[in-house]
Amino acid sequence: MAGVVKAIQRRKSTGIILANMGESYWSPEHKRAITVVDSRALSMPSLVHMGVQYHPQVNDIPGSESPLCHARTVLSTIVAKNANKNAKINIIAAGDSCEVIASLLDEEKTWAEWGPSLQGALFFCPAFYLDTKQAGLKDFLAKKSRGYSTSEKPLGTPLSGPEGNSTERIPPLGFPCYSTGEQSLDELCVISALEHGLSYLDEVANIPDYENPAVTIVERATAEEAVNAWDELSPDQKPMISAMDENQLQEQVKNIRRMRYFAKTGHVPDSDDEFDMKDEAAGSSLPVQPWEEASPRLT
């Protein structure tokens, strides 16, 4: 998170407010907020106790009883107190927070109050479907927001438009989605694509009446298309694939063992049992051990 803050600070005229939507459970033992999942790992009085019981009066944080409540509190208190009336707000959310902030903005009261102040938004690894009720929010997401998802494609490659893309397993998010260049780890999405996303927010801020351009998606080939492409290749373009009879393979293995036995003992084996070397130690498959070549024998 420190790296994220430093990257944002390099932009001019930027104030940063962090919302910790994950830690909504107060732990008296540690005197700090923790996640609900972490609360299950709190120490118990003894091994025979069933677990740590949840008490709303003790474990709830006023105004942050849930991620949605926390986001609403931050917006209505911290942002309202520290941002002037003409300030423009950019939103950066990651993971489950994407759905939380989108749901908050879709509330009629919230959108009426904060919608005009929004300038742009970044959603890293979004995974939700929101049937947007506020027409203004739907327009904002489609025109001035962008998502980034895991993909083996290069950073910044368009993956879907607002309507989603089933071949890339991206639901209709309401905004275009681009590749982070990170193939599988969601935790690295922000790190991999942050600078790319911040450049996008700069573009939104510097171009009057900015709107997302139409994206061109390069569709993945279907299984049928891949088979047809293989059939269209000439024989010299296809890799050579051969099959061997099992008996022939076993005979080749025997010949290799005979050669290894001869190299080791200096005489030809009289039978298959004699050169059966199943009890060889690991690393002894070479006729001459490499360390024997490199090290002189001691006599």
Let me know the largest β-sheet. 5 strands, mixed
What is the helical fraction, as a range of percent? 25-40%
Cross-sheet strand order for the largest sheet: 3-4-5-7-6
Tell me how many strands there are. 7
H and E order: HEEHHHEHHEHEEEHHHH
Shape, principal axes of CA atoms: extended
Beta-strand content bin: 5-15%
Distance from first to last alpha carbon:
64 Å
Low-confidence region ranges: 286-299
Rg over alpha carbons: 31 Å
Structural class per helix/strand content? Answer: alpha/beta
Please, how many helices?
Answer: 11
> On the 0-100 scale, what is the average pLDDT?
84
Q: Can you walk through the features of this model?
A:
It comes from Akanthomyces muscarius. InterPro entries: Arb2_dom. This is Arb2 domain-containing protein. It holds the Pfam family Arb2. This protein is α/β, with parallel strands linked by helices. About 35% of the residues lie in helices and about 10% in strands. It contains 11 helices and 7 strands. It has helices at about 1-10, 35-40, 55-60, 65-80, 95-105, 110-115, 135-145, 190-205, 225-230, 245-265, 290-295; strands at about 25, 30-35, 90-95, 120-125, 145-150, 160, 175-180. The protein has a 5-stranded mixed β-sheet, with helices on both faces. It has a two-stranded antiparallel sheet with strand order 1-2. Strand 1 (about 25) and strand 2 form a beta hairpin. The radius of gyration is 31 Å and the shape is extended. The N and C termini lie far apart (about 65 Å).
